[in-house]
Amino acid sequence: MTDSATLCDVEREVVVCRRCPRLVAWREEVARVRRAAFASEEYWGRPLPGFGDPGASVLVLGLAPAAHGGNRTGRIFTGDRSGDWLFGSMYRTGFANQSTSVSRDDGLRLADAWVTAAVRCAPPANRPTPVERDNCLPYLVRELGLLASVRVIVSLGSFAWDVALRALAAVGEPRPRPRPKFGHGAEAEIGGFVLLGCYHPSQQNTFTGKLTEPMIDAVFERAKELAGRGQKRS
Question: Is there a domain that residue 165 lies in?
């Protein structure tokens, strides 16, 4: 597939990116020092590309890789508690073939979904700077341009919501006024896309009950419904 080959080109550029000195230093330090539980593992320690179904109608946008999750395994949301929640929900709602993901080669396959991140390197304290956000934005813009069937963007958290709005503006979609506000279950139709908000499946949200399994499942069921109504973009 031509689109698949071009997405592979983006992937090759992402994994060698060194645009952000702070993020490069942090991701490599984490990969070198390692957490005790993973001391015997070889960490990925590089930026993470998106992955999934090139014909996807739903794009799932996270914040950034976890230091000992994606930065270790080499795939966004793979090997961490947030991923357990995300892939569990995607499995229950028909977007994934299995409910957990622990490594890049564990057999996970996505159907009609593409998973990616606003920032491609693990940031200290999970807090990218505005400059780091903007340095990564072109990768998401290129993915949106290549994923011609994407109709719905599920934004996991307010940071991803903001980045999705910036990316949609960059691909030429109209800037809505007033600016849509993030909220769990919030929806905003922007040109040929629908932006759908979901609380991030971080432990801060799942341990406190701010986000429950029925809540995240409802978002993905809604994404499926919205995607089914859309037409492929030209």
Answer: yes
Task: Assess contact for 116 and 59: CB atoms under 8 A.
Answer: yes
Is residue 122 a part of any domain in this protein? yes
The whole domain housing 56 covers 2-229
The SS3 assignment for 193 reads strand
How far is it, in rounded angstroms, from Cα 39 to Cα 181? 42
Each residue of 114-154: pLDDT tens digit?
999 999 999 999 999 999 999 999 999 999 999 999 999 99
State the CB neighbour count (10 A cutoff) for residue 97.
13
CATH code at position 111: 3.40.470.10
d(CA 142, CA 180): 23
Against a cut of 0.85, is the pTM above it? yes
Whether residue 234 is contained in a domain is answered as no
User: pLDDT-derived band of residue 229, with 50, 70 and 90 as boundaries?
Assistant: low
Ordered strands of the 113-117 beta sheet = 51-52, 113-117, 58-62, 152-156, 193-198, 187-190
